[in-house]
Amino acid sequence: MSPRDYFFSDEHEAFRETVRRFVDKEIRPKINEWETNGCYDRAIFKRMGELGFLGLGYPVEYGGQEADIRMSIVFWEEISRCGAMGFPMSVCVQTDMASPSLAHAGNHAQKDKYLKAVCSGEKIIAVAITEPNYGSDVANIETKAVLEGDYYRVNGSKMFITNGTQADVINTVVRTGGPGYQGVSLLLIDADTPGFSVGRKLEKMGMLSSDTAELVFEDCMVPRENLLGREGEGFFALMAGLERERLSVCALSYTGAQVALEEAIKYAKARVQFNKPIIRHQVIAHMLADMATEIEACKRLAYHAASLVEKGISCNREVSMAKLYCTETANRVIDRAVQIHGGYGFMKEYIVERLYRDARLATIGAGTSQIMRHIIVRELGLRE
Length: 384
Ligand SMILES: Cc1cc2nc3c(=O)[nH]c(=O)nc-3n(C[C@H](O)[C@H](O)[C@H](O)COP(=O)(O)OP(=O)(O)OC[C@H]3O[C@@H](n4cnc5c(N)ncnc54)[C@H](O)[C@@H]3O)c2cc1C
Fold this sequence. Notes:
Butyryl-Coa Dehydrogenase, subunit A, domain 1; Butyryl-CoA Dehydrogenase, subunit A, domain 2; Butyryl-CoA Dehydrogenase, subunit A, domain 3; 4-stranded mixed beta sheet; 4-stranded antiparallel beta sheet; 10 strands; binds flavin-adenine dinucleotide
């Protein structure tokens, strides 16, 4: 049993208990079914909205809780204990990836219509940045939005979009101006807009309880009033939400690793080889010690970055370091958990098999490890 973590107050811990009970009762029993179906049941978003889980960081005026970031960390950690990383990722897209730029750049009418519905779970939201030809290189995206009277005519396609088949509204990165990030804007596109379609639901290696889709915009006419902020400000609005986005990925990753560690300890105590439980072979015990130490280091990096966010201190460097370290560590730790399980770790009936596949995305999505290093190099002043 770990000692109480004093990064969190009694209030945070009470909230942790609430989320944990919810996950035990309403998520874990469903997760295998959702993994098989390739998507969660969308009614769960409404339920989480009723419980006040989807708007933790947002203003009360729009249905949020105005809670501090530590409350969000508690939520991310507990939702990630559900037995898969896919569904938690879909939830984090709703709460901390697709909606921060709406909260940041949206006007009152937009927030009243969309942010409220996101917080209540009545609308599922996706964020569509990546395209078939542009991923890390966001500033060069090609999906075009041309203003014609009171509507933008949108043409293009988006790739790998989480919640893509379920979303009621897609926060879409479009090009309204010239080349580079100054030409990029954000448009809220309702999924029932003529000209919008889900090209295909994508089959993937892991994160199966979360849907991923290619989205197509063909002469899709979007009301001008759905522009978030002003033309050319889309990139900056996206940046405003990046810290929370990356910290949520940190929490998903080290919690996935923590679950794998717990499974590995349980297994190592039960599995007997050479007349003793394998945990009594020092090599195995030392592997577990290393795993626990690395997870602890992940948490400290993430909590430190979160405390800077809380104080309003610029912390691109710390958040990028946390994202890099937590996601790479999760892959390393879960790999060892599979190893400790031997052949059973390769079998679908063991949770480490799923976590191993799920964690692989973490160093790719929300900014790859290479891009994190790129930012850290810049922040260290080692390059232009
Ligand atoms: C399951 C899943 C869910 C996703 N959900 C979403 C979503 O909801 N919304 C969304 O918009 N996107 C989403 N993505 C897309 C994800 O964010 C991108 O895959 C990611 O940003 C990388 O882009 P890319 O795949 O085009 O790779 P690329 O950018 O083409 O990169 C390919 C390789 O080159 C490296 N590389 C690229 N540029 C550099 C550089 N300058 N220096 C060094 N190395 C470099 C990368 O690190 C990577 O290893 C999702 C992806 C997956 C797989």
